[in-house]
């Protein structure tokens, strides 16, 4: 019980420090130190937990991928490739109603923390042209932006799952997550897009030339995924192919310099600190035993699911960071003595619940950027969420129930 209390108090440090204007990276590092010092695991195990992150291949892969994706996003933005993608997409799709949802979804493939900052100006401009209220524009940008994080193999949440389990199938995890993505799309469409006026398609712009242009300029986003899928090479290496494509599409001026400037040190530090947190938690045997006993002795999926729901949502909400929540819950799931299929279902549940907590958190970076650009208050945005939040949670629990019946 002591270690559980310490874990909760350590995470409560995060909103306090962020309120005092500390950067997220600095905040997570300090929270990790607090957790390590007060966890009761001892100095030797604390040092082992920290050094283990830099010795474990999966953890290093996570850090390198996050760093390289931040570089890719930075150079695509600097050389105007994102602007070309948005402009060409409107011509090809022909409908602003469709484009306003596709833009944040496409830019979300870059998996950049706070990346809604890139898509928000485009959504705001298009939304203003077709008469969407600012709070709804903000909701559209946030709802449709986060889908890729569930299905892209290089997303931080997927990489955290990969580093937490030795015998989990990532393709199977992504397959299950795709049902959650489908729910986001359907719920988001009916709540925010369906009743919008469908502006007429300008067929003269939907030319083969523009379609080719869209395929070419979006190639840096999907090229690394395709190459990794074919060759099995790590993503942090295949992203260099995407960077080469950006180089060929750009004016090439100061490219290496802009690459180096695009390295987001704070993102790298944040992810590293989260991995250290995860490593410390794995050393907190008393807390893990407490939850493991609760799960094992409950004897039913409902109790386990409720505990995962509460823990995932709580830590996601107070940190405003999904990966921080997963760092708590995934080690707990790893302790469960359940079937291979059920392990994946619990990972799906924890991923969904941690996302819901993080998504609606006032500390969520994408939300903070979006409300600022749209000129709305957090309260106005939450009014737009009044149906989205409960419906999404109900949908998540329903899919877990159906998965349990079909494959559990």
Please supply descriptive tags for the structure shown above.
408 residues, mainly alpha, 21 helices, globular
**What kind of assembly state do the chains in view correspond to?**
single chain
Measured on Cα atoms, how large is the radius of gyration? 21 Å
The class by helix and strand makeup works out as: mainly alpha
- Percent in helix: over 70%
- In this structure, how is the largest beta sheet organized? none
Summed up, the helix count is: 21
**Overall mean pLDDT score?**
84
Query: How do the SSEs run, as a string of H and E?
Result: HHHHHHHHHHHHHHHHHHHHH
Distance between the termini: 31 Å
Strand content range: under 5%
The total tally of domains equals: 1
Number of strands: 0
The geometry reads as globular
pLDDT < 50 stretches? none
How would you explain this protein's 3D organization?
The chain is built from 21 helices and no strands. With 408 residues, it is mainly α. It has one domain. The relative contact order is 0.15.
């Amino acid at each position: 019980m002591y270690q559980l209390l310490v874990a909760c108090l350590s995470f409560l440090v995060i909103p306090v420090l962020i309120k005092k204007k500390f950067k997220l990276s600095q905040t997570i590092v300090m929270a990790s130190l607090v957790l390590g010092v007060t966890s009761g695991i001892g100095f030797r195990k604390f040092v082992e937990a920290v050094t283990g992150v830099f010795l474990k291949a999966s953890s290093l892969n996570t850090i390198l991928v996050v760093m390289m994706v931040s570089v890719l996003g930075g150079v695509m933005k600097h050389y105007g490739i994102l602007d070309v993608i948005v402009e060409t997409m409107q011509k090809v799709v022909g409908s602003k109603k469709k484009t306003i949802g596709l833009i944040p979804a496409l830019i979300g493939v870059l998996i950049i923390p706070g990346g809604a900052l890139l898509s928000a100006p485009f959504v705001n401009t298009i939304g203003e042209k077709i008469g969407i209220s600012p709070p709804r524009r903000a909701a559209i940008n946030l709802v449709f932006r986060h889908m890729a994080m569930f299905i892209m193999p290089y997303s931080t949440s997927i990489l955290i799952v990969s580093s937490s389990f030795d015998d989990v199938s990532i393709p199977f995890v992504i397959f299950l997550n795709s049902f959650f993505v489908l729910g986001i799309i359907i719920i988001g469409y009916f709540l925010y897009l369906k009743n919008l006026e469908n502006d007429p398609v300008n067929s003269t712009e939907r030319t083969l030339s523009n379609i080719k242009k869209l395929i070419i300029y979006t190639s840096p986003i999907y090229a690394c995924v395709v190459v990794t899928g074919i060759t099995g090479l790590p993503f942090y290496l295949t992203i260099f192919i995407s960077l080469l494509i950006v180089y060929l599409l750009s004016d090439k001026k100061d490219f290496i310099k802009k690459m180096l400037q695009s390295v987001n040190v704070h993102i790298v530090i944040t992810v590293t600190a989260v991995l250290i947190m995860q490593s410390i938690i794995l050393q907190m045997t008393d807390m893990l035993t407490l939850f493991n006993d609760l799960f094992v002795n409950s004897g039913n999926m409902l109790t386990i699911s409720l505990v995962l729901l509460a823990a995932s949502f709580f830590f996601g909400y107070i940190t405003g960071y999904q990966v921080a929540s997963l760092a708590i819950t995934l080690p707990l799931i790893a302790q469960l003595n359940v079937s291979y299929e059920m392990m994946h279902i619990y990972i799906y549940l924890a991923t969904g619940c941690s996302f819901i907590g993080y998504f609606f958190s006032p500390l969520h970076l994408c939300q903070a950027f979006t409300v600022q650009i749209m000129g709305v208050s957090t309260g106005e945005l939450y009014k737009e969420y009044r149906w989205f939040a409960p419906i999404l949670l109900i949908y998540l629990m329903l899919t877990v129930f159906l998965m349990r019946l079909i494959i559990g």
